[in-house]
Amino acid sequence: MAKLEIKLRSFLPRDKVVFKDNLEERVTFDGDKRKKADYNSNAYRTSQRFVIDTSKKDYGVQDFKDVGITTSHHYNSRGKLLEVRKNQAPNGNLKFTKRIENDDLYLSCSCAINNPSVWYSPDIKYNLEIKVTRTGSVRLTGKHGQFPAFEFGRHQISAKKAPENIWSYIPKDSAGVFDLYKPSVSVDVGRPYNSDKNN
């Protein structure tokens, strides 16, 4: 039996993204200023977090969801900063459903969150399922978009182990907003409760 925390998040692995750059203006968006998965980081675009107690019949699932702040910088044609705007998308399209099958817990998670500062911008998207066993072993399966970055981690609280980054997807440096329109890609990765290696 185990008490554990699981995080499923997206993040923008850039310092900034240039949205518009012409003779009249330049607009940039802040990235999350990290290049790799980091369980303890507070920088992300979207976050689904679960606290689970496998000793309880229903796994005692507590869920938390959040969307990061979107910050844009607006410059004139001479490069003078005119305005900094902050916006935050609603978290209503961060969803999950729970079921227990053969005494294992399944969390079906979905995300469809876009840039709240750009009308009709494409979504950060995924449809991923997390499997948790009574011992605290986990498995992640499903599909996610090709941009931005995604990460999946576990903290086995009752075992007093350090948090682990189990899986991450980091897009190429050349990837950008238009990659949000590309087809989703698959993931299937798991990790036993008593190992630091995936299976």
Task: Please give a structural write-up.
This protein is an all-beta fold. It has one domain (3-187). It has no helices and 14 strands. The relative contact order is 0.21.
Task: Provide tags for this entry.
mainly beta; five-stranded antiparallel β-sheet; 199 residues
Concise synopsis of the structure shown:
With 199 residues, this protein is mainly beta.
- Please write the string of helix (H) and strand (E) elements: EEEEEEEEEEEEEE
Q: What integer is the average pLDDT?
A: 94
Largest sheet at a glance? 5 strands, antiparallel
Spans where pLDDT lies below 50 across 5 or more residues: none
Number of domains: 1
Give the strand line-up of the largest sheet. Answer: 5-4-1-12-13
Sheet-strand content, in percent, reads over 45%
First-last Cα distance: 21 Å
Number of strands: 14
Instruction: Briefly note the structural class of the backbone.
Output: mainly beta
Number of helices: 0
**Gyration radius, in Å:** 18 Å
* Secondary structure: helix percent: under 10%
So what's the overall shape?
elongated
SSE layout:
Elements: E1 3-11, E2 16-21, E3 25-30, E4 46-53, E5 62-67, E6 70-76, E7 81-87, E8 94-101, E9 104-113, E10 124-132, E11 138-144, E12 149-156, E13 164-169, E14 185-191
Antiparallel strand pairs: 1-4, 1-12, 2-3, 3-6, 4-5, 6-7, 8-9, 9-10, 10-11, 11-14, 12-13
